[in-house]
Amino acid sequence: MNPEASRNVTEFSIHGLSEIPQHQLPIFVTILLLYFLILSGNLIVIVVIWGSSHLHSPMYILLLNLSLIDIAYTSNILPKLLNILLTKRKAISFVACMVQLYFFIALASIEVILLAAMGYDRYIAICQPLHYTSLMSQKRCSMMATSAWVIGLLDPTGHILLVSKLSFCVSNHINHFFCDLSPLLKISCSDTFKVEMLNYIVGSLLTLSTFLLTLISYVLIIFTILKIKSAKGRHKAFSTCSSHLTCISIFYGTIICLYMRPASSYYPEQDKFFALLYIVLIPLLNPIIYSLRNHDLYIGIKKIVLKLTL
Asked: Which architecture, in CATH terms, is 3-309?
């Protein structure tokens, strides 16, 4: 293929999760069920928080934003994957591929900032409870959430501009189940150094800074909890942040495995597994371990149900 002409590639072919025909239907049913559960769980969280005045506090405002993110980035990828599994039509236009890549990076960036904000919220609640209302006011929390969305939506701009200028003369076949950065760079015959450097610099600055902020918050939280004399008090304090700690461990673990390495070390099957964890498992678990175990949310759910039944 002529390198210059390859810049005008109009579509890609997405590999999907499996080439074996017998696997297509079971995978389709499984992904559809998981997508339904993700939408249901996160929509319940959004409706309950939005409709319950006693939940209009910083922690729950951040949870609402996190649920919106979980719905958005699964909806960015899973419907197309389901269509591929059902119809076996693997083509995706160049523009649609760039849009999918843009929102994938943007929504991931918003999530890392939200997770750091939630870590800070738990730090203030446990380490400085007397100053919680002043340090984590609704206005400050809204500013944090707004900043997360603005920074996240601006973050992928450079990536998309550079990727859209690459030549794809090796192949137009993306060995993945969505348009991700590593498999796209793998099939490009252009010099991808600028894209990779931008990914490392921007990704490292954003991911490492938010991770360090979260880590520092939890180091201070642990020191504070250890100072509590009663076992019951320590357990109660730790239970308020254990869910967040579990989710950030899974989240950062998958992010580091997927993106903190050169494109040359891309291994399709391994990366598909970690990407599934990130795209499906995390948004599935978030409403369960963050929210549905929460007593205040149970009260909110009961109130919503009573309003609907009256």
From this structure: Up-down Bundle (1.20)
